[in-house]
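Record passed on underneath.
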Amino acid sequence: MLEAQGGGNCGNALTAAARLGLAPAIVTKIGGDGVGDGILAEFKGDGVDTQYVLRAAGAPSPFTYIIVDRQGGTRTCIHTPGEPMQPEELIPELAAAVLDGAALVYFDGRLTEAAVVLAAAARERGVPVLVEAERLRPGLEQLLGMADYVVSSAHFPQSWTGEQCLGDALLATLSRLPRARWLITTLGSRGSVLLERPSGSSNGAAAAAAAEPAVLDDLAEQLFSEAASSSSSEEQGGPACVSASGIEIGASRQASSSGARSLRLRRGEAETQGVLQAAQVAAASAAAANADASNAAGYAMQNEAGGSSAGAAAEVVASVTVSQAAQLPAEAVVDTTGAGDAFIGSILYGLATGMPVRRAMQLAAVVAACKCTALGARPGLPRRANLRADLLGA
């Protein structure tokens, strides 16, 4: 079966947000070809504003072949890039028009040179910035440094920091994001983890810092066990979502730490050198995978002193929330392509509407699960009518 659909991390996320009720606008560059015409038509059909999309006359639009193995549950992607947006194309007038009245601005980690220009303009205007950290990319560290909120893939923190233990990698990542209020890391079929900094210099934060530090992996496992054994009030009101094909999806279960905790690394100082080397290997692998092997240094994240970012703070104070994946029958999963984008689109909706981040994570889990009930990144994305009203904050 062959089907042509719109895609791309940002495009998918904005489509998810639009179907939930937002009016997002996309800033990007595509070719002046028929594929580009189709991209614009699909966005407009879903309510995504395309007035800030630049067209490159005579150039092809980006295109990706995604081969889905339903039996093996795997995906193979073959990407043909288009002509990238250049920083000088984001002229001040364009940035001002884009940010006028914006509740927030989201970057998917691509086209980082141009993205940094728009992120800087957003900071000047006081518009919050959300950055997706899917994989190592040149220039991504500078963009992450401007982020108020970060959503990462499961493997990014370990690739960035070189930490072998996921909990240590999450702590090391948050310690490298001084502006970020919170970090959400998606864990595929297991769910997601939120690390949220306490607001201001509260007494609660001081008390947490003075208490016995916890190892994040141990705490997260405890919370996942609590979530699995819980019965949330949302489950009493029927299915959280009914997909277009009639599949019922149950709510995500959550568990949280009792306020902010002092979280420490599992590894010891003696293992720092191995962490540094692992981060360098990950950067070299990312560069090679992008046919950019000579630019491995551009993929390695650097700290203020110019060294590897693997030298993380020994302790981080944050509250921890785990959210299980939404309840979806295994046989109902058709394709996981774009599930992470659906998750981020829901987080965008939550931020734009003032929803508490933990509630937004529950919505995101349900939207991501619904997306998986159809082939491709967008056909399975639910609309407001598919979702139970309380999930939308209604």
Summary: DSSP finds 13 helices and 15 strands in the chain. The longest helix spans residues 272-289.
